[in-house]
Amino acid sequence: MNKKALLALFVLLCCTLAGAQQYPTVEVFGGYSYARVSFAGTSANYNGWNASLEGNLKKWFGVIGDFGGVYGPDLGLSDNRYFLFGGPQITARGKKINVFGRVLVGATRKDQYLKPFSMLAGGGVDWHVRPHLGIRLVQADYILTRFQEPACTVAAGCGPAATQNNFRLSAGVVFYLGKGY
């Protein structure tokens, strides 16, 4: 192979790789969060915030850290929840719309009680408004937690910790960092 053919092959390869990089390397989300939180056999509405930081390894695959806090109704007792999750996220990217899904693991804090293992499964839709800026139209998550008061044990007649099925909806702004958008 002569030098011109090698140079042409190298340029073609570089152009192909550059064209394949049409996705942001980092995505930052912040917004409002509504949650339906279960506790003691009942449930209540909570309001709060949600944020995430995602590093994209491929156009369709990224690793995400999801953080949030929701604040319960004032019933004379503080009942705030804080979430910290991490894991993989799969994204189908379009010209104006991204659809994503994820299953994450992490921890939930309810006031002074920390649950070292919680799980989140969910997804959402982002709309590209401008280069490097999007709107998260909806993010819907199911959050599984299990809490039990530290003084409450099976021997004391309290039974095992109950599974809590929580649902969270979020919406807000997405910033796309890096080349590609």
Fold and architecture overview:
The chain has 181 residues and is mainly β. The protein has a single domain (23-177), classed as Porin (Beta Barrel), CATH 2.40.160. 10% of the residues lie in helices and 65% in strands. It has one helix spanning 3-20; strands at residues 26-39, 42-56, 61-71, 80-93, 97-110, 113-130, 133-147, 162-177. An 8-stranded antiparallel beta barrel has the order 1-2-3-4-5-6-7-8. Strand 1 (26-39) and strand 2 (42-56) form a beta hairpin. The longest helix has 18 residues, at 3-20. The two termini are 37 Å apart.
Question: Main attributes?
Answer:
eight-stranded antiparallel β-barrel, mainly beta, Porin, 181 residues
What's the CATH class label? Mainly Beta
Number of strands: 8
The CATH topology comes to Porin
Please state the second-level CATH architecture. Beta Barrel
Q: How many domains?
A: 1
Distance between the termini: 37 Å
Characterize the main sheet.
Answer: 8 strands, antiparallel, barrel
The parts where pLDDT drops under 50 for at least 5 residues are 9-19
Rg, alpha carbons: 21 Å
- Average pLDDT works out at 82
Structural class: mainly beta
Order the strands across the largest sheet as they lie in space: 1-2-3-4-5-6-7-8
Quickly count the helices: 1
